[in-house]
C-alpha cells in the first residue's frame, strides 16, 4: 500500500493540516539547544513546548525561572508554509527535524505526533471549542478559574471564522438531519449545531500555542529547541519517596546537557510531552510496569507503576468524500453538529494543489523508496465525517526501544467495545441524512447516493486494515474497516491512575504531568482549547502554592544566579559526566 496515495487522500479528505504561522518572528529567549550550557539549574523544568507546555511555561515565568525543552523546531522559521497549498509538503516531510512525525498504531491506522514548538496547534484543523460543563465538573476544576484561563487563551489567538457556501450548506444540512437547535457562533459545547472558533486570523495566518509565549516574562524563561530529553533524574534514597531533581537532554549535535532544579522545596519538573511522549518518557526514566521496563533493560526501575501507558484512547473517525458539481471554498472545520447521542459531525472542503514531492518513505513500510511523486490536482470536493466522543474502547502504549525520539508501540483497540460501534452506526446514519439533505444538494452530484459515497472509502488506502465485502451494505463492518484517527488521542498518564487531581505523579515528589495524557476522555469537540487552558489553569495554581510557601519560608532564594549568555537559569560552564 502506497503511503503517498494515503497522504494524497488525506489532502483530499480533510485538509486538516494547514501550516500557517504567526509573522511575529521569534522570541529572544528562544534558542537552539546547541547554545545551552552543559549544566544549569532552574526553578521549573517543562519537558515539551507543545499545546499545554507553552501555556504552562508562560504562566510560571511570571514568578520563577523556567526552562522549556522542545524536541522540535520553531513554527516561526518557515513563513513560506503559510498557504494551504503547502499542506502536503509539511505532512509528507518526516525527516528528523520535521514538524510532523508519523506513526502507525498496532491497529493499522495512520497517525502522527507533533514535533514543533506549539505542538499539534501548529498542525491541526484550527477548530476551537471549550470542554462541556460536565467535563469541568468531572475534573473537579474551579469553574471561575477555568473561565479565566480560557479567556486568557482566546484573547491571544482565537477568532470568529467567516462561514461561506459549503460550510453554510453543511450547517443547514445538519439542522435538516435533526441535529438541533442552531446555537450560532459560540466557544461553548452545546448540543445541536454551532459555529466554533478558529485559530486562524482574518488574514488567514495561523496562531498557535507558541504565541502564548508572548505572555511570558522574558527575564524568567528560556526555551531550547531541538532539545531531546532522554530521561528524568530522581533521588532514590532508601526509605524515602523518589524525587525528581533534573533531566538529561541532547542537542542536535549529539551533545548531552544536564538541567537540575534549584534547591527549593517548591521546584518541580513538568512533563508536557503529550499522550505519546509523556508516558514514553516516564517509562524511559524508570517509572512504569516493572516487568516491561526490565525487559527493555531500563535501569534503574525507580517506581513500579503498572498504569503508565494504560488507558490509551483515540476518538475514531469515519468519513465520506463528497465531490461537488460546482466550486467550493477552501474551508477547514468551522461547523460542528453535536448530536443527541453526544457524537460529532464535522466537515471541510476545497482543494487546489499542484506540486512535486520527493519523500523517503518509512523503512519496511513500502516497496518503493525515494520515489518522486508528481501530483497535479484540481478538485472540488468536500468531506463529511463522524467522530465518536469518549470511546469506551481503550488500549495501551509500550516501549519499542530506548530512543526517546522513536515512536513507541501504541494500540488503541478501535471499536473493540460494541457500544462504540453502535454510536458509529448512528453517526454515519446522520452523515447520510446530511449528504442527502435538500440544503446540501447543490454540493452533491444528482443521482449519487450518500451510501455510494461512503463505499468509495472502501477502495482507498486510508488505513492498513482488511476490507470485507459486507462493508458495502453493513455500516457496522464499514466502521471497522474504514476507521481513521481525528488526532485526538489521549491517556497513558491518567488522573487517578498515574497522577492525582493536582497532576502530581503518584508515588513521586516534584514531578507532574500536565497535558492530554492525563485525560480520561478527550474534552469538547476538539481538545486543543482545553489543553491550552489546562496549562494556564495549573500554572496559576502552582504559582499560588509557591507564593504561600514563600510567605511561610523566608529563605526562598537558595541559589544566586550567575550571568550566563546562554541561560537565565543558575548555570555553570564546567563540563560534567552524567
Automatic annotation (TrEMBL):
Known cofactor(s): FAD
Question: Which PROSITE patterns does the protein's record reference?
Answer: GMC_OXRED_2
Q: Which residues form a coiled coil?
A: none
Signal peptide feature range? 1-22
- Name the InterPro entries for this protein: FAD/NAD-bd_sf, GMC_Oxidoreductase-Related, GMC_OxRdtase, GMC_OxRdtase_N, GMC_OxRtase_C
Highest taxon above the source species: Eukaryota
One Pfam family hit: GMC_oxred_N
Task: Describe the location of the Glucose-methanol-choline oxidoreductase N-terminal domain by residue ranges.
Answer: 274-288
Q: Sorted alphabetically, which keywords does the UniProt record give?
A: FAD, Flavoprotein, Signal
Name of the protein in question: Protein HOTHEAD-like isoform X4
